[in-house]
Amino acid sequence: MRSHPFRTLTLRTLGLVAGVLLLLVTLTGSIKWGLTQVGWQTLLNAFQTPEPTQVELVILNTRLPRALIALCVGASLAMAGALMQALTRNPLASPGIFGINAGAAFAVVAAAAFFSVASFQAYTWVAFAGAAISGLIVYGLGSAGRTGLTPLKLTLAGAAMTAFFSTLTQGVLVTDETTLEEVLFWLSGSIVGRSLQSLTTVLPFFIAAWALTFALSRPVTTLLMGENVARGLGQRTGWVKFLSALCVMLLAGGAVAVAGPIGMVGLVVPHIARFLVGNDYRWLLPYCALLGGSFLLLADIGARYLIMPGGPVAELLAGTAARVLSDEVPVGIITALIGVPFFITIARRSVSE
């Protein structure tokens, strides 16, 4: 049995306090740091003055919504990833394997190509619908047969639907360059240009999923002991699996609807939380929420500075490449750069074990 740094109740509680402080620091940094220089006094005045200046409007209308979206999306993806890894008993599982990202992406591309949908608000609802439909199909396929829902069948169904929707998406984009230009930035995963309205659209789903996920923490921990053990303890495992899958659809679907298919958060963060507190989901899920929000906030801050005008990388990419990427890199690219080495490490460890 592996030892974990936070083994006692006191250490785990202190870890949660540290996680809250880290989240507050990254949230404040996300609001303060960027292309437009913001002083501490200006930051405070933005929330107090009835007649904000132009810089203060940038804080209220651009950076604050962006920071809150990153927090909610990061926390939701991390919690969804933790549930996916418990449901499939696969350390490499993440919301992408459930077909949710692919289903949402196809729905947005199809809406833009065939129905001329072009607004972020419309993308939010279309992506949510696509994610939900894809998740229901995967759950239905994974539950078919006499054996019911099993980790292997769920994983295979998710992989099959991911490949199916990804192929359809690529087919539409190849035949419609206009649609490609409209949705490319969204498909790479980005929270640039999102408003608080896009967050409030899915916030009720987030809140319901967060509450249900925390309520499932004890049953999910019991389920990890094995199907027979859980049933022997009186657990209705079918309901636990169904409600857990529903939470994954709401959490990941809402995240994709708001920010596009941002990868690797649901893979990386649960493993960091598991290293700290082990497999007790009563502690693992709160840690995932705090660390997931901080992780995406930090990645978004890095995305702003990587090719900021006047910076060394921007000069290196001077010309067409810099214009294509706008003034910053989509945050989904940053999370992928961080997550790929992590993915390789976990895969090698799983094979060796």
TrEMBL record:
SUPFAM superfamilies: ABC transporter involved in vitamin B12 uptake, BtuC. One of its GO terms (molecular function) is transmembrane transporter activity. InterPro entries: ABC_BtuC-like, ABC_transptr_permease_BtuC. The chain crosses the membrane at residues 67-84, 96-116, 122-142, 154-175, 195-217, 238-264, 284-307, 328-347. It is a multi-pass membrane protein. GO terms for biological process: siderophore-iron import into cell. One of its GO terms (cellular component) is plasma membrane. Belongs to the binding-protein-dependent transport system permease family. FecCD subfamily. This is Iron complex transport system permease protein. It comes from Melghirimyces thermohalophilus.
